[in-house]
Design brief:
The protein is an alpha/beta fold. It folds into two domains: 1-44; 46-311, Zn peptidases (Aminopeptidase, 3-Layer(aba) Sandwich), CATH 3.40.630. It has helices at residues 2-19, 22-44, 49-60, 70-83, 140-157, 188-199, 230-242, 261-265, 293-311; strands at 89-99, 102-113, 120-126, 165-171, 206-213, 222-225, 249-254, 270-274. The strands form two sheets. The chain has a six-stranded mixed sheet with strand order 1-2-4-3-5-8, sandwiched between helices. Helix 1 (2-19) runs antiparallel to helix 2, helix 3 (49-60) crosses helix 9 and helix 7 (230-242) packs across helix 9. The two termini are 18 Å apart.
Length: 313
Amino acid sequence: MLRTKTFLTTAPVTTASVTTGSLNRNFLMKALPILILLSSAAVASDFSGVSAMKYTREAVAFGPRPAGSEANHKLQDYILSQIRQDGCQVMEDPFVAKTPFGDKMMDNIIAKFPGRSGRAIVITGHFDTKPFPGRKFVGANDGGSSTGLLLELARALARKPRIDDVYLVWFDGEEAFRPEWAGLDNLYGSRHLAAKWRQDQTLTRIKALINVDMIGDKNLNIKRETNSNPNLLQLVWSTAAELGYQAYFVNENLATEDDHMPFIQLGVPALDIIDFDYPPWHEDSDTLDKLSSQSLEIVGTVVLEVIHRLEIQ
Ligand code: 1BN
Ligand code: ZN
């Protein structure tokens, strides 16, 4: 794996330079910048921010995508068509949600990359957008970025041997139908899947669930979400720092409700990676020009590395 090469390229040269003379030291001084470049390229290359941005752009092109809408159904078909190319098990989780505006058909989409340990790691995000009747809210960051990042994760995980099962879940119905976020008018997809996985015992196999939301902002600034599991917060923040991303995973706190909450409430170690410092939040100006492929690559690379670390724990 590229990750292993990263450590092998730097370590032996450093050791040799300490034990032998100035020749090796000179070599090290010249070679180190190249080795650092090579090692960061190796870490970044499994997950492509450019590819994640392309998926995000294609999702956003469907326009406003509230749960139950035609555009939402077209996006479901698009997600399914993409993940069917990734050599994973593809599952749908259709259900009827009781909303303040009546019953609505919703559907979570699940990609399973099977492992051999019996344990599971789950990475989630939402693909619906908040309904704003009469407006053109396309949710490039809020709904688009999580959809694109998960599609690129599926591509990066495709056809690789696994220790744990890795599930990727695209949640429907994260957003409230009413203008305000209140009561049971939100988190429809995650509440449904948490209840289903409680029934069939899947929850007992989950080592960790990581939800991503609004992670494409050009000005990436992710705070520690305080409803999240403390051990997972520690793992994600230390991984980000070791990859050189401490400027983006900052040491500040924030509490939000998001798709991790139904799992937290059922005792699953879960965490929300959310950049809530985003002025166009729920505005029609939440458009693609506010996003960057670098931000998607930073978060995707951290999540991939965390999956690896969880698997060998
Ligand atoms: C995230 C994106 N959320 C909705 N769209 C959840 C949320 C709701 C976060 C209220 C903060 C406040
Ligand atoms: Zn939202």
